[in-house]
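Open question from group meeting: does this chain pack into something compact, or does most of it stay loose? Before anyone orders reagents, we agreed to write out a predicted structure and look at it together. Recording both the input and the output here so the notebook holds the full record.
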Amino acid sequence: MSNFEANAGSVLYLIVSAGGPVVRTVDRIRVELARGFEVRVIATPQAAQWLDRDEIEQLTGRRFESAMLTPAQSTLFPLGNRVLASPVTLNTLTKWADGHADNLAIGLLCEALGTPSLPMVAELSLSPRFLRHPAVPAAVGRLAAAGVEIRSHPDARVRPDWAEVAAGRVPAEET
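Structure tokens returned:
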């Protein structure tokens, strides 16, 4: 069974990974709640260690998820109608693009790619040196081609033109 349904619903799966901006996840939840979304937070295992589970559950009214589901729990409810991956680190970016679903957060990102018409946004937060890693252009290009809107995280220090990065034109200097 799928964890997503592409319709006009308002369930946002906020998938967070362990980049610096993750410490402002509660602020992001408040923004998305104010926009009218019901927010489910799913974190990579490392990001989960940096977040206050109780505060997030109280704010969203939903269970904070980070551990892989058991076969008996194979689906989260409510089903997600859109995905916001923010912040996205180098690790999450490359695993997602290559289909390495080794934790719940990345597994859901991989599953979302197989859900036609599901709105997906990835807000990248990469350091200048990570931006120049040779895996980044292919990963950005693969996700963009699959329909993911790629943009910089609002707090990112590096804000390149992601279409240029996907084409292999990565800035040599900090941008």
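Observations to bring back to the group:
The CA atoms of residues 28 and 34 lie 10 Å apart.
The domain at 11-166 is CATH 3.40.50.1950 (Rossmann fold).
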